[in-house]
């Protein structure tokens, strides 16, 4: 299991070598990179993701790993950050949420073709581990990393260890219930946090405003090509950056639920720091400041505990492959 305390020592003594290959597999792209022990990315490769074809996904990952291995022959381990529920064996895709690979023993499928040990990790866990090892939460032994994009994912580090749970399904923070019988979620339940705090939820907020208050939402509609049915989180964010009152109200709705959800998680986890990552984090203070206010207002015993910093991620787009590579090096 990944452990902050033994990470550097273990790598120094590990006969598999300091260089590791990390692969970040998403619905639209597969990115691979060679990563050093200090988290430095020495080379990268990107390929389009054939998300609808299981064998094509495996073939593309193998192609990426082989090409990187040819250029850096001392690489000895491979870490794959994969979307979906990863079983506790860190090999099997127990449930592929967006890709066609449920039930696939992905680590075995890759390892037998590249001749290297392979570890598979949930993509949010990999991203979060990179933030704790090398990014905004570096040096913290208890951290919560929240990735906000199309959905809401996360990674939890407790006492220097990545929390995976009994079946490998821990840290699915987007599916804590915040609104009983609320908006339907793709997981099959209703009222999940990601239905109110993800980028897609921001678009829904904008659409609801346009439907019932079209004059108030005029700027958002304009930035959506004049069609209220095409409103996206990006259009709302663009309007919010201009100071549009309707767009800022859409953000206020989102940050209210995000802040409350984070406060609920802190009542259980008591982290030293919360790191906000993902596409929506690019909104910066438009997202961060109202989220911080909602979080502090609903945090259990908030007036009697040390402040919990709420900060933006520092790892950038390569954090997923960096974290996967580092986890494989230790695995």
Task: Provide an overview of this structure.
α4 (123-134) packs across α11 (319-330), α8 (233-241) crosses α9 and α9 crosses α10 (285-298). This protein has helices at 7-13, 54-71, 106-114, 123-134, 194-197, 199-212, 218-223, 233-241, 245-269, 285-298, 319-330; strands at residues 20-25, 29-35, 41-48, 78-82, 85-86, 93-95, 118-122, 143-148, 152-158, 161-162, 273-277, 310-312. β2 (29-35) and β3 form a beta hairpin. It is of the alpha/beta class and 331 residues long. Mean pLDDT is 90; it is low at 5-16. It contains 11 helices and 12 strands. The chain has 2 domains: 7-132 and 318-330, 2-Layer Sandwich (Nucleotidyltransferase, domain 5), CATH 3.30.420; 140-313, ATPase, nucleotide binding domain (Nucleotidyltransferase, domain 5, 2-Layer Sandwich), CATH 3.30.420. It has a 5-stranded mixed β-sheet with strand order 3-2-1-4-7. This is Glucokinase.
CATH superfamily of the largest domain: ATPase, nucleotide binding domain
Arithmetic mean of pLDDT = 90
Q: Could you say what the CATH topology of the largest domain is called?
A: Nucleotidyltransferase, domain 5
Number of domains: 2
Poorly predicted parts: 5-16
Largest sheet, spatial ordering of strands: 3-2-1-4-7
The H-and-E topology, N to C, reads as HEEEHEEEHEHEEEHHHHHEHEH
Helical content (DSSP H or I, runs of 4+): 25-40%
Per CATH, the class of the largest domain reads Alpha Beta
Our estimate of the beta-strand percent is 15-25%
Family: Belongs to the ROK (NagC/XylR) family.
InterPro entries: ATPase_NBD (IPR043129), ROK (IPR000600), ROK_cs (IPR049874), ROK_glcA (IPR004654)
Protein name: Glucokinase
EC number: 2.7.1.2
């Amino acid at each position: 299991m990944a452990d902050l305390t033994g990470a550097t020592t273990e790598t120094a003594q590990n006969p598999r070598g300091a260089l590791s290959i990390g692969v970040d597999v998403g619905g639209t792209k597969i990115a691979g990179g060679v990563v050093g022990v200090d988290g430095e990315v020495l080379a990268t490769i990107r390929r389009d993701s054939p998300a609808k074809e299981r064998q094509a996904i495996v073939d593309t990952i193998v192609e990426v790993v082989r090409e990187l291995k040819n250029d850096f022959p001392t690489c000895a381990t491979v870490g794959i950050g994969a979307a979906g529920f990863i079983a506790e064996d860190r090999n099997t895709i127990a449930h592929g949420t967006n890709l066609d690979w449920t039930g696939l023993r992905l680590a075995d499928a890759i390892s037998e073709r590249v001749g290297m040990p392979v570890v598979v990790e949930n993509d949010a866990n990999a991203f979060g581990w990179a933030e704790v090892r090398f990014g905004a939460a570096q040096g913290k032994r208890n951290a919560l990393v929240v990735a906000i994009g199309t959905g809401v994912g996360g990674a939890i580090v407790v006492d220097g260890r990545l929390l995976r749970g009994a079946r490998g399904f821990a840290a699915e923070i987007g599916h804590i219930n915040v609104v009983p019988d609320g908006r339907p979620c793709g997981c099959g339940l209703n009222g999940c946090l990601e239905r109110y705090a993800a980028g897609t939820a921001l678009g829904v907020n904008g659409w609801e405003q346009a439907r019932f208050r079209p004059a108030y939402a005029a700027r958002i509609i304009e930035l959506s090509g004049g069609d209220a049915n095409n409103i996206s989180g990006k259009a709302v964010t663009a309007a919010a950056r201009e100071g549009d009152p309707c767009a800022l109200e859409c953000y206020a709705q989102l940050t209210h639920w995000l802040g409350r959800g984070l406060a609920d998680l802190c009542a259980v986890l008591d982290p030293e720091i919360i790191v906000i990552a993902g596409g929506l984090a690019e909104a910066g203070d438009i997202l961060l400041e109202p989220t911080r206010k909602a979080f502090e207002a609903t945090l259990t015993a908030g007036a009697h505990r040390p402040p919990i910093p709420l900060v933006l991620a520092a790892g950038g787009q390569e954090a997923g492959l960096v974290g996967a590579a580092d986890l494989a090096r230790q695995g």
